[in-house]
Amino acid sequence: MFRAAFRAAFRAGGTAAGGRVRGHGRTVRHGPVRPPARSSRMRPRTLTVSAAPQGAPVTADPLLPTLITRAEAAAHARPEPCPCGAPVTLAHRPDATVVRHAHTVAKAHAPRTDATGLALRLTTAARLSGVLLPPLTRAPAVLHDRLVTFWPYGTPVDPNAPDAAPWEAAATLLARLHRSPAPPALPPMRGPAKAARAVARLRATAPGHPAARAVLRAWAGLPAWARDEAPMPDSRTVCHGDLHLGQLVRHPAPDGPWQLIDVDDLGTGVPAWDLGRPAAWYACGLLAPEEWSRFLTAYRTAGGPAVPAEGDPWPALDVPARALTVQTAALAVAKATAADRPLDETEQAVVDACDRMSGIPPEPAAGMPGEPAA
């Protein structure tokens, strides 16, 4: 059960949370809940639209045949020999379709993706090679009204080996990313925008659900920037925007150094947002204290600027952790409603965290606005 929960952590895609949770824990000033004492075997899981499993056969879809052809062409354009095999679908969701041909990956981005913003993100990934996986080309192609990018294949984190999860590598890469100079005109990081979309989905599809009030109340208590209703207070720091374990690969495959993938949400903003999902998992009791400590210690050791080098990190992490907890709960309620089923134990636990944290105002980090909605 714990391994299944861990495997689900690789499909975060803007959501988080889960695992078997008993729902106890107390509200404190620094986050949704202080993690309760429990077994170190507890693993995070996530709640999201399921992607096709690694290695699944490609299925029929109007976009897929052209995307497959382009992936094959990109693979055969490279100088090294192509170990040809059947193309596979790595993900197939409304917001992304990803196929692999040998050592080349083609990704069709979400409909209406901004071409200029994506090009700037691709250029940034190319410049920060070694931290971010560099694209094969810096200019996206257009297929069936979708922007398509091409990438080298990297070996992902093994979802069947939870004890080998690269928390230190993830934290070190984030610290290096956050210390990198922001390229001119790089768009804002899209984390708050994704959280706002999750809340909008809740309001559109499940406004009368019994859990909606607690989630919306917690959302209303966040500062405007975290709700994507005002500019972020930091416009100079490069952020990933959607950090979870599924965003790391080893390149060159199979055992090269870890690198971050997925530039869709890359941009400038509050670096603590990138630590917010692991912080939320920890605060909700879904990430073992020792794993959180490994992650936080590695980030600090690498000189990451999101939290103080020593002392209490929670004033910096509080707002992002709350926002990502709300995002998780909003999507959980919306999906349960769409499936016409009750919330399961883990979904209810995240909603309960929203209910608890709404009773205490978030504490803004030094120099950041913290006024909640009126």
From TrEMBL:
Domain of life: Bacteria
Segments forming domain Aminoglycoside phosphotransferase: 150-312
Matching InterPro entries: Aminoglycoside_PTrfase, Kinase-like_dom_sf
Biased composition (Basic residues): 21-32
UniProt cross-references to Pfam families, sorted A to Z: APH (PF01636)
Residue segments, region Disordered: 16-44
Gene3D superfamilies associated with the record: 3.90.1200.10
Region forming the signal peptide: none
Protein name as catalogued: Aminoglycoside phosphotransferase family protein
Annotated source species: Streptomyces thermoalcalitolerans
